[in-house]
Write a structure and sequence with these properties.
The protein has 42 residues and is mainly alpha-helical. The chain has one domain. The chain is built from three helices and no strands. Helix 1 crosses helix 3. The termini are far apart. InterPro entries: P2_GpE.
Length: 42
């Protein structure tokens, strides 16, 4: 949840109302956006 909130600036209240599967989908999108913007660390 913290990754999603940090990248997309969403409040914890909004995230708490989501299913775990939806949060995991958004986490994947957040990771992709972060890596696109700042480059993946390998």
């Amino acid at each position: 949840m913290a990754d999603v909130a940090f990248v997309f600036h969403w409040s914890p209240d909004w995230l708490m109302g989501r299913a775990a599967s939806e949060i995991l989908e958004w986490r994947d999108k957040a990771l992709a956006r972060w890596n696109h913007a700042y480059g993946a660390k390998e």
